[in-house]
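New to this. Please check both lines:
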Amino acid sequence: VTIIGRRREPLERAVALGAAAGFEVADVTDAEAVARAFSDAVLMRGPVSLLVANAGGVETGLFAKAEAEQFRRMFELNVLGVVHAVKAVLPGMQEVDHGRIIAMASTAGLRGYRYVSAYTAAKHAVIGLVRSLALETAGSGITVNAVCPGYTQTTLVIDSVAVTAAKAGRTSDEVLADMLADKPLGRLIQPSEVADTVLWLCGNGASAITGQAIAVAGGEVM
């Protein structure tokens, strides 16, 4: 396993803890940096058979106050970040007629949410990309899928709750309760639950699963 990120220190810690065999430093919005990172990883650790495009981010706010640049940032990170990574691995997968490509989308790619219009538009685009790639690679031994978590207990969500609470003059617990009020499961999704779904899609047992957007959201999306 090779992990890629913008900051060297957390990558080094992850490798030291045994979470990966190695790492490369790159910003996924930089196509040339991503291509170099994958090229170096292949030289060091061999061909890429599994890609999990997990980089992403969100910016919140009313659509009426959102500048076009916010939409560009969300698409650069959430959509083109996936595009650059797939471009780097797909030729090698096509040479051997085997591979698994998994893009981390969101339930925001399956429905609408208030105050995150740019993020929602970008995640819808990721799912559209996955569906097109799945058709182009069907029958080749390569599968392409999206995983769509609901609100998950990650730093991204916890920090977003804190920012929203500060802006609204409320407690984080109050904001979180509102976020989960219409969620059938009534709690945040755990990262391990998302990871298990990704792991399944990587296996031989999922060889007939392609072009899907799989919600890990406790019944929020049906």
